User: Fold this.
Amino acid sequence: MAFDRTYDAKVRGAAFEWLSRTVSIRGEVLSRDVLAAGFELDERRVPLVGPQGIFKPAVMGVPLSITTAPNGPYDDAFGYDNLLRYRYRGTDPQHRDNVGLRFAMQNSLPLVYFHGLVPGKYLAMWPVYVVGDQPEYLSFSIAVDDADQLDLISEVHETTGTIAEIRRGYVTTTARRRLHQSAFRERVLRAYRHQCAFCRLRHGELLDAAHIIPDTESEGQPIVSNGLSLCRLHHATFDRFFVGVRPDGTIDVRSDILKEFDGPTLQHAIQGLHDQPIVIPRKQAERPSEELLAKRYERFLEVAAAM
Assistant:
C-alpha cells in the first residue's frame, strides 16, 4: 500500500495531542459521540472511531485506532504474557482491516486503543503497538507503551528482547489495572444513575466508585454489589470511617463527629447524613450486598468505639 510516513506521523501526532487535551478536560473515559466527531486537521475532519473495531479515517492509509465494544462479539482479553489479544476482523487473515494492522505492526506504527466500559463510554490508551500476529488464533497481540517514548518519524525501532519489550510489558500491566478500575467505576456510576449515594450530587467529574470491602482483600471484588457511587468528599468520609452504612442502607455518622462543631460543611455535608437512607440502584442485582455492608459496618463500629 502507498504510505507516506511523514503525513501519517502528522495525523497520528495530531490525534494524540487532541486526546491529551480532551482527557485533561473531560477525564480519561470518553463518550463515543466525542470520539466519532474527532478533530479537524488541514480543513478535514478526522474521527477516531467508526463502525468497525479496526478504524482507518479517510485521511489515512493505515488504521489509527482499534476498539473493543462493551459486550461486543469479540472476546478480546489479556493473555498469560499480559498482552492484549485483539481479534481479527472476521475470519479471513487477508481482510483489508487485518492487513492494515499487520502493516502497522511491521512498521511499528502507534495506534489508539479504545476499550468499551459500558455502552457509549470508552477508556482511551495510547500509544499502543501491534507486537504479534497469531493467524491460528485469528488475533493480534497488543502492547501499551509510554507516551514519552513515542517516535512517529524514525524508521529504526527497538526490536523484541530489548528494553522496549520490558518497558511495554510493565506499561501494559499497569494499563490493565487502570482498565479494570475504570470499568468498575463506570458500572457503579451507571447503576446509581450517576449520583452520589449519600448526597445525590450529579456532577460525574466529582464522583468515584467506592469499594465497600477494599480491593486489596479477597472479598473486595470489582463488582457493582461491592460498590457505592460517592462524591469525592463522601468517598473520603466513608474510607476514613467518619461514616458507616448499616446493612439496611442507613447512614451512621460516628458519635464523636456528631458532637463536633466546625462550620457549615461539617454540619450539612457530614452530620446531616446521620440516619438518612442511601440511594440504591433500581436493579436488585446491582444493589449493595447486605453481607458486605454488614462486614464493613462492623469495622466502622470498631473504629467508632476507639474514638
Notes: DSSP finds eight helices and 14 strands in the chain.
